[in-house]
Design goal:
Layout: E1 2-9, E2 16-22, E3 27-32, E4 37-42, E5 50-53, E6 58-63, E7 68-73, E8 76-81, E9 87-92, E10 100-107, E11 113-119, E12 127-133, E13 136-144, E14 147-152, E15 158-163, E16 168-173, E17 186-190, E18 198-203, E19 209-213, E20 218-222, E21 228-233, E22 239-245, E23 251-256, E24 271-275
Antiparallel strand pairs: 1-24, 2-3, 3-4, 4-5, 6-7, 7-8, 8-9, 10-11, 11-12, 12-13, 14-15, 15-16, 16-17, 18-19, 19-20, 20-21, 22-23, 23-24
């Protein structure tokens, strides 16, 4: 691995999540779910961060065009303008269930958007995983507790996903024509809670899965056959989600959380960067 782990942004997030590289803006975007905020910052960390405050929990996004993103909130998928701040509802998301909020999500290779929901207090089996595709939101997997690790292989054949408390990362085959799940998910990794707690994840161009482990202060890299290739320590124990970006997709940022037992740790909640000698996939564009 070239280069050390360093702070990309020193704004402490109570629950940092959902990092994404917006190619048209040339910047990383991420969220503080608990504080209902979204951040945007260019690859040059000397450029001041932009911050938007919302009135609901927001957690993940996909890019639409030069100035718009699709944001998952606790009640809807929103089309949001990065220049004016204007937003409009694209589709409701568990709008009639006030006990839940959105969590991990990512755009898929067909222009769809996968998004998980969970109980605001992580109530068991309160969540689900949905897909927005061509104007429709369809529930695909339920009941889940903390859906995470939603990402896609470069050959478009599989999606990965996890229910964090169960410690299992699943591999889901996808239909070639439209990307809907094909058959049932199969176990890809079963990870012991003593050293792992799978949270957000992303797949690089070689098909390696990069996964953050909440409470373990690390990022692991697994080959397409599941073999663990690397384990990279992070300064903050509550690591939440990685994302590749930059002009050549060689920069990896990792969000973390300062909530709960991490309170008082000056490293907790910061967003970190590293260059792990890997190339990430470009984020797929959401098509409304």
């Amino acid at each position: 691995m070239s280069g050390a782990v360093s702070a990309f942004d020193d704004t402490p997030c109570q629950l940092g999540e959902g990092p994404m590289w917006h190619p048209a803006r040339g910047a990383f975007l991420w969220f503080d779910i608990n504080e209902k905020k979204m951040f945007l910052r260019g690859i040059d960390a000397k450029i001041p961060v932009e911050i938007w405050q919302f009135d609901q929990h927001v957690s993940a996004a996909g890019w639409l065009d030069d100035t718009h993103v699709l944001i998952a909130s606790e009640t809807a998928l929103l089309r949001f303008c990065l220049t004016s701040g204007a937003k409009e509802v694209v589709a409701p998301l568990e709008a009639d269930t006030p006990a839940t909020r959105s969590n991990d999500g990512r755009a898929d290779p067909w222009g769809g958007f996968w998004i998980g929901t969970m109980g605001k207090n992580a109530e068991p089996d309160a969540g689900a995983i949905y897909r927005y595709y061509r104007g429709e939101v369809r529930r695909m997997f339920a009941p889940w507790t903390i859906p995470n690790a939603i990402c896609f292989t470069p050959d478009r054949r599989f999606a990965y996903l996890t229910d964090t408390p169960r410690g299992i990362i699943w591999c889901q085959a996808l239909a070639e024509t439209d990307g809907w799940p094909k058959g049932e998910p199969e176990q890809f990794l079963t990870l012991p809670a003593t050293h792992y707690r799978p949270d957000g994840a992303v797949v690089d161009t070689e098909g390696n899965l990069w996964c953050a482990h909440f409470g373990q202060g690390k990022l692991t890299c697994h080959a397409p056959d599941g073999t663990e290739r690397r384990s990279i320590a992070l300064p903050a124990r509550q690591t939440t989600c990685p994302a590749f970006g930059g002009a050549d997709f060689s920069t990896l940022i990792v969000t973390t959380a300062a909530k709960g037992p991490a309170g008082g740790d000056p490293n907790a909640g910061l967003t970190y960067r590293l260059t792990p000698d890997a190339t990430g996939q470009a984020e797929h564009r959401v098509i409304l």
